[in-house]
Amino acid sequence: MTEPNTKYRNFEKNFRSFIMAGFECADHQNAFGERVDLIDLTGHDLFIDEDYKRLRDIGISTVREGIRWSHVEKTPFQYDWSQVEDMITCAKENDIEVIWDICHFGFPDDLTPLHPMFARRFSHLCRAFVQKYRSICPDGDLVVTPINEVSFLSWLGGDARGTSPYCIHQGWEVKYKLMKAYIEGIESMKEIDPEVRIMSTEPLIHIVSPDLSDTALVLHANEKHQEQFQVLDILSGKMCPELRGKPEYLDIIGVNFYCDNQWTVTDHQYIPWDETPASPFWKSLHSLVDEVFIRYGRPIVISETSMAGEKRYAWLKMISEECASILKSGIPLLGCCIYPIIDRPDWDFPLNWHHSGVWDIHNPETLEREIHHESLVAIQEFQETLAASEVYILEEM
């Protein structure tokens, strides 16, 4: 077994808590062209202080938040940072560490990734954010995700007509334009703060042939599976070097892992994760993280994971066991983010709530948070597993 967390000390950054919390911050236009603002719908902007205190009470002090581009920039190149300032201040007061999404899902009304000014507007926004943040917090680490899940956003807007720009058969073009903006955004941020850390966050998927005896189908499934790495290859400069990607931009790799991240290539049938006996097609989180680490050799965060409904405890229990296994293997796994930590409504049908957080919302009028006790137990057991693990190092590197 690799000696834990020793050969990676030169580039590893420990977060304040291994278990992290993500607040749903999508502000995109949904399949019906309606603007969805999940910070507003969940009341996180109103209850942020209480939300942070709840996290501190259960031992979580690192969170993912988003600035909501459509909210900040209603007029081109003019920014309203008032709510972002409130978030920064509240995080400081509660000793909460924030990983910032510049664009989670969502663009201003007058922009799509295919707009000729998209990259320029985004890079200007990134620069302005770092300037604002450093005017309030001149010291300490700043970790930023420029654009969340470029692969998924490219498919949703470029192939599935589920969000702006509502296209089909243009997924690659949308991805290319998003990555152009992504890299120019990094360049702009590093001009202001060369030490800014970049955490990419991409879906961690597995695509398989339902018939392993069909060689052509197996090869096709593998080709589709490998496409999940295009964003990271572009970011590192290995692919599309004209976009100016660099190896150092591949800093911390975030992987988003849900129960529907594995499917068969021909009919898109989801592979069940909890069958007994286990499905032969399901790949463990550990094995998928192995693939990423072997390919890139960078520290990894499980940047999103959760389960809706009655199986939340079982999912979180499985995730905790997988994280312990990954840590024991010597891979520098820096954290695991429960996303969302607070319940959320559906994007397209906002009257339907998923009940996927550690705190549920049963009354959309009051937005009162109600603890899901089994999820809380799962987190406490997760923390106990980490505390008992000899490979999880709490001190700063």
Proportion of β residues? 5-15%
The CATH class turns out to be Alpha Beta
Distance between the termini: 21 Å
- Content-based structural category: alpha/beta
Biggest beta sheet summary: 8 strands, parallel, barrel
Whole-number count of domains = 1
Identify low-pLDDT runs. 1-11, 393-397
Walkthrough of the structure:
With 397 residues, the protein is an alpha/beta fold. It has one domain (19-388): Alpha-Beta Barrel (TIM Barrel). 36% of the residues lie in helices and 14% in strands. The protein has helices at residues 38-42, 48-57, 69-72, 82-93, 118-136, 150-158, 171-192, 215-226, 230-235, 285-296, 312-328, 373-388, and strands spanning 19-22, 62-66, 97-103, 143-147, 197-203, 206-208, 252-256, 262-264, 300-305, 333-338, 359-361, 369-371. The strands form 3 sheets. It has an 8-stranded parallel beta barrel, surrounded by 6 helices. Strands 6-8 form a two-stranded parallel sheet. Strand 9 (300-305), helix 11 and strand 10 form a beta-alpha-beta unit. Helix 11 packs parallel to helix 12 (373-388). The radius of gyration is 20 Å and the shape is globular.
